[in-house]
Amino acid sequence: MNPSVPGRPHWWQWPTILSLDAPAVALAWQWLLARTAHVALGWPQMAVLGASVWLAYAADRWIEGWRLAPGQILTQRHHFYHRCRWPLAALWIVILAIDLVIAARHLSGREFAAGSMLLGPVLAYLLSHQLVHRHHPARAPKEACVALLLAGGVAVFIVARPGADLAALAGPLALFCLLCFANCALISGWESHVDAAHGQTSLALQSARARALSRSLPWLLAAVSLVFAFIEHEPVRTAGLCAMAAGVLLGCVDRAEPAVGWQLARVLADVALLTPLAPALLRP
User: Fold this and answer.
1) Distance, CA of 188 to CA of 23 (rounded, Å)
2) Number of domains in the chain
3) Domain limits at 35?
4) Structure pTM?
5) pLDDT by residue (tens digit) across 19-68?
6) What CA–CA distance (Å, rounded) separates 14 from 17?
7) How far apart are CA 212 and CA 135, in angstroms?
8) Nearest 5°: phi and psi at 37?
């Protein structure tokens, strides 16, 4: 057992360890943004998005766990991917096959083509940030790349649907992308010692000023989202209120991080982005 990692994960760490946190956030916002754009998505679009996000996150953590020595690993999620490397690789191949079968059989040609367009940027991100430019000081911040890719994945099947209200979608989608960036930027600050030990460049390590500004970003997004919610009509208003709540929750988690610790704060930062679950559960 790696002495630098606690022997047994807390129960609340398992969604992050199993890379289920990002797919959950993506699916929650896909539902909300589809409603905002006045389109209906079925289970194939949800299944492909959830599986694809999991595959991307799992690949990133698998590569990280593969290239790190056991003594370097400081997180439960990377320790899990290091220890269970080959069973997870087999599971990854199975999920990939299921994802491709669902996409080929149940997506329209337009949806399949739109989704395929994201494959190149995702592969480029993994190649650049995990291998080629891993230590390059001028590389694009991984936090911005992750936010853009996640927002693109959430929007891709909505945009591909005929009749989607792209004007209504634009504002909430931008807010979601910025919330993802704020989430990643805050985590990079809390886990700066982890990135340093893992030989990974992050926004917090690249710029102390950016790290300081990232702490104000959730509150700024909450204020902008509140104004946005007041000037818009349903269902865009609901998206604005969800974004506002997510910004406030992210800001509160950041304030609480010194008391609760970086590991719990990381989990709570992802929970903060699940605010679309409220209208989903309360809808008539």
Assistant:
1) 20
2) 1
3) 15-278
4) 0.92
5) 999 999 999 999 999 999 999 999 999 999 999 999 999 999 998 888 88
6) 5
7) 22
8) -90, 5
